[in-house]
Amino acid sequence: IDNDSTVYVVDDDSATREAVLTLVSSRGLAVEGFAWADEFVRRYDPALRGCIIVGMRLAGHTGWELLRTLVAELGLSVILCSHHLEEVERLCTRVGILRRRLLVEDSTFA
To answer: Which 3-state string (H, E, C) describes 35-64?
Structure first.
């Protein structure tokens, strides 16, 4: 991601969303937060560049549903976040695990 891009954070948990917003902005990146997936989809301008960090489970709209919308319609890179590993294994083809800001596992699922 470059200086002309924005990191979008979508999570219905306000504490999680604020923590991620703070972390990303502390790295000097432009960041915007949304509580709801539908709010993000309505307000996002596809002419803008960026990536999205989204929770896997959102009230009223799952992260997976939002991911399908993002890939099909908006063309954004997506970082999906979840602590439900069985769901991650079922839905994803690649997973990375961070511990204290370090990548400790990077695996591809068959």
So the answer is: CCHHHHHHHCCCCCCEEEEEECCCCCCCHH
Compute φ and ψ for 83, nearest 5 degrees: -105, 10
- Cβ–Cβ < 8 Å for 53, 63: no
Given a cut of 50, the residues of the chain with pLDDT beneath it are none
**Residue 31: per-residue pLDDT:** 94
d(CA 34, CA 43): 10
Q: How far is the C-alpha of 77 from the C-alpha of 49, rounded, in Å?
A: 9
Q: What is the dihedral of CA 14, 101, 65, 49, to 10 degrees?
A: 90
pTM over the 0.85 mark: no
Cβ burial, residue 11 (10 Å; 0-12/13-18/19+): buried
Type of residue at 46:
P
Q: What token pair was written down for 9?
A: 């954070």
